Amino acid sequence: MQKIVILTGAGISAESGIRTFRDSGGLWEEHRVEDVATFDAWLNNPILVMDFYNQRRKQLLEVEPNAAHHALAKLEERFDVQIITQNVDDLHERAGSSKVLHLHGELKKARSTVDESLVYDVQGWELKFGDTCEKGSQLRPHIVWFGEAVPMIEPAAELSAEADIFIVIGTSLNVYPAAGLINYVPVSCMKYLVDPNASPLPGIRNLSIIREKAGTGVPELVEKLLAL
Ligand code: APR
């Protein structure tokens, strides 16, 4: 079975109603995301950071996967599909994708502040001060903050190197190390980029750019691949 590896970013969830980082000018409630989504912000202003993620988790309970998420799940009928997402939402899983690797963490999970291997599902939308792990320490959002290590990047790079087909959807490729994954993909591998504002990727061979929104471009691409 041919292996398709798919790198997704905020753009695939835009048509579900979740604003992308760059569309909102990188702002949330007048705060720069880079100033809220950091460990320093958590130390200096934990209430602001906790509220930032509670508000995003609350919104997640009100949105649904869109046609792009569902099309990627359908791709599993014929291919071995591995999704690598920068998104912290669970829309790929809710659409039925079975192999999803989250590079930047998961909004619906929380983890211990003394033992990062202790990860828990957040019940409902609100994580509160006083919610503790089994070792008694405060839980934090299970998110990779700016400046923190991206522990899943090694397995993501290995998966990218094994791709027969590589698809990039809805990411500005601004943030590393995620943006560097395409360089692990074999030169001979057919690559697709779905993004209405896609800019050329100099030096990347066998690349087909689809300047469409994910909700339109991804189902069309999936139908084409399923018909191969
Ligand atoms: N369909 C497809 N792509 C879209 C759509 C859409 N409907 N709407 C916007 N886009 C594209 C934009 O053109 C842009 O290239 O989605 C991309 C969104 O880029 P960003 O907002 O930078 O989001 P992303 O690339 O996922 O950011 C990467 O940066 O903020 C950090 O950790 C955060 O995971 C995030 C990382």
Describe the structure.
The protein is of the alpha/beta class and 228 residues long. The protein folds into two domains: 1-18 and 65-104 and 149-228, Rossmann fold (3-Layer(aba) Sandwich); 19-62 and 109-143, SIR2/SIRT2 'Small Domain'. It is built from eight helices and eleven strands. The chain has helices at 11-14, 33-36, 39-44, 46-60, 67-74, 91-95, 153-161, 214-226, and strands at 3-8, 27-28, 31-32, 80-85, 100-102, 105-112, 119-121, 139-143, 165-169, 190-194, 207-210. A six-stranded parallel beta sheet has the order 5-4-1-9-10-11, sandwiched between helices. A three-stranded antiparallel beta sheet has the order 7-6-8. β6 (105-112) and β7 (119-121) form a beta hairpin. α5 (67-74) runs parallel beside α8 (214-226). The radius of gyration is 18 Å and the shape is globular. Adenosine-5-diphosphoribose (APR) binds next to α1. The site of adenosine-5-diphosphoribose has 21 residues, from α1.
